[in-house]
Design a protein that fits this description.
Helices cover about 70% and strands about 0% of the residues. With about 120 residues, the chain is mainly α. It has one domain.
Length: about 120
């Protein structure tokens, strides 16, 4: 029963769920920061005299969490991790928030060009 070692195919490693879970976690974090940013913006426009904080930290937090989430979602799609609820929700939320950020950016550029 001698077998040639070249003919034995190695088993393919089963992809883990690490990047899917990280994508989901960063999508929830980006959503949380985005909601805080919307609440803070609403407070700014409704009651200017009580508004003391700058929203720059929240803006950077949303952008960084969204970019990390999109990166991990892309890696999990490339590694062909199993499509579970975490991965589907994470990918959807990350690309939705990324689209919103990109839309806000393009809207600001268009408004700036019309001045």
């Amino acid at each position: 029963m001698k077998q040639i070692l070249d003919e034995i195919e190695p088993e393919k490693p089963i992809p883990g769920k690490v990047f899917s879970i990280l994508s989901f976690a960063f999508s929830i974090l980006a959503s949380f920061f985005f909601i805080l940013l919307l609440i803070q913006s609403w407070l700014f426009f409704s009651r200017r005299e009580y508004y003391r904080h700058s929203p720059e930290i929240l803006v950077w937090s949303v952008e960084i969490a969204c970019l990390l989430g999109v990166t991990f979602a892309t890696v999990s799609l490339i590694r062909k991790e199993k499509l579970r609820h975490f991965k589907a929700i994470g990918v959807f939320l990350n690309f939705l928030i990324f689209g919103l950020i990109l839309g806000f950016f393009l809207y600001a550029v268009i408004l700036d060009m019309n001045r």
